[in-house]
Design brief:
Blueprint lengths: L2 H24 L1 E8 L6 H18 L2 E2 L2 E9 L4 H13 L5 E4 L3 H14 L3 E3 L14 E3 L4 H14 L4 E7 L2 H16 L3 E8 L7 H10 L3 E5 L5 H10 L8 E5 L19 E4 L8 H13 L7 H19 L6 H8 L3 E4 L2 E5 L6 E13 L2 E13 L7
Parallel strand pairs: 1-3, 1-4, 4-5, 5-6, 7-8, 7-9, 9-10, 10-11
Antiparallel strand pairs: 2-3, 11-14, 12-13, 13-14, 14-15
The structure holds 4-hydroxy-3-methoxybenzoate.
4-hydroxy-3-methoxybenzoate (VNL) binds next to helix 6.
Length: 390
């Protein structure tokens, strides 16, 4: 064969391969799911991964003619790693959506990448109010601490818990929880004896709890991130704080369904406010919990799992509504305003704020069917994030 013909033949093959490749790419819809699979918040990653996979198993992996590809990355709970992974997912893998984000600093570190690349970023776990304001491409399916804390600030003083010490993890969601709880507590005639903040990384609760004991409040209000609740509960009980007449209250992160059943009877009676309980008595939730446990060796879904499950729903429906054409702006537009029944109850993505609107429940730890559960006893409907500054 003539040299020129050989070149031409090779060129044609290359073009053909490239074309096949781009058709394949065009037929694939990629979701870059960045989660803490190791490190302090590994349980959050485990829960969200299981929920995302369940959603796909139940709803298929082809949507509007596109094959859904889930690319899971472990950020090891380190924000710089989250950001680098997001960059690689956008530039190298050309993902259509970024999702996950176990902790607030990881979500905030990634926000500029979503903005620059016009990639929708679905926050499934992190819960500081300001996150959705860090990029117009962020949509949240988790919750905000302000939503949950306000409900507890209303409930506690009306139920005899007037003098309260607050104990929060010293970063975004803890600061929000403290602020919104105290604001409402004081509005309702309660008082704060002391506000304590523990380091986010490797906290030692012992010295703080000793201080609380000495202050003898009616209640201790706690926020710690998912996964840290069992340690707080253990030390609270070991110090005999319950016997000293101090009630443990908080947002539902402390009686996390991932750990609650192993906390023991000492957890009975603890009242918290939150958007999700595995014991939420709806048909949709019963179905969700059963399927989740069946697919995951009996693991009980927690509020992180629900954030992940609903986040997948928001992505799938946005892809359907934009007729599979994708494109960051079209997807984002189709995420805004979605309204549906989540395992948590009714849920809505506010088009203005791109944040979740949902019910906040008051729950008490009780034994149900032999297991410890957050049993809902009251509800505040359709709660918007009180923490929005614009
Ligand atoms: C955050 C908020 C993380 C609530 C959590 O668990 C949580 C956060 C990992 O925004 O960092 O329960």
């Amino acid at each position: 064969m003539h040299k020129r013909q050989v070149f031409k033949a090779i060129a044609l093959v290359v073009i053909a391969l490239t074309a096949t490749q781009s058709i394949a790419d065009g037929a694939t819809f990629k979701i870059g799911l960045i989660l803490p699979m190791t490190g302090q918040q590994a349980s959050t990653g485990r829960q969200i991964e299981a929920a995302a996979k369940l959603y796909m198993a139940q709803n298929g992996d082809t949507v509007a003619g596109k094959k859904i590809q889930l690319i899971i990355k472990d950020d090891t709970t380190i924000p710089d790693v989250t950001k680098r992974l997001a960059q690689e997912l956008v530039v190298n893998d050309k993902v259509d959506v970024l999702a996950g984000f176990g902790i607030t600093p990881s979500a905030l570190a990634t926000a500029p990448i979503a903005t620059q690349s016009k990639t929708p970023m679905v926050v499934m776990a992190a819960a500081t109010s300001s996150i959705t304001q860090a990029s117009p491409y962020i949509v949240r399916t988790s919750f905000t601490l302000a939503q949950a804390a306000v409900a507890m600030g209303d409930w506690a003083p009306k139920n005899g818990l007037k003098k309260v010490v607050t104990l929060v993890s010293d970063y975004g969601p803890g600061i929000d929880a403290e602020k919104y709880f105290i604001e409402r507590l004081q509005l309702n005639g309660g008082q704060v004896a002391e506000s304590l903040r523990v380091p986010m990384r490797n906290p030692d609760f012992a010295p703080f709890l000793q201080k609380v004991r000495d202050l003898k409040p009616d209640a201790l209000f706690v926020f710690v991130p998912s996964g840290a609740g069992a340690a707080v509960m253990k030390q609270f009980l070991e110090r005999g704080m319950d016997k000293a007449g101090i009630k443990l209250i908080g947002t539902g992160d402390v009686t996390d369904d991932d750990q609650l059943n192993d906390m023991g009877d000492g957890a009975l009676g603890v009242v918290t406010s939150h958007h999700y309980s595995a014991a939420h008595p709806s048909a949709a939730n019963k179905k969700f919990v059963e399927a989740f446990q069946k697919a995951n060796k009996g693991m009980r879904p927690n509020f992180m799992a629900v954030g992940g499950y609903d986040g997948m729903r928001v992505i799938y429906e946005a892809l359907k509504a934009s007729k599979g054409q994708g494109g960051g702006d079209a997807l984002l537009a189709a995420m805004k305003g979605q309204i549906f029944e989540s395992p948590r109850g009714p849920m809505f993505i506010d088009s203005q704020t791109r944040d979740v609107v949902h019910n906040i429940y008051l729950r008490k730890v009780q034994r149900q069917d032999g297991q410890l559960h957050n049993v809902e006893f009251d509800v505040i409907k359709d709660v918007k994030d009180p923490g929005k500054t614009k």
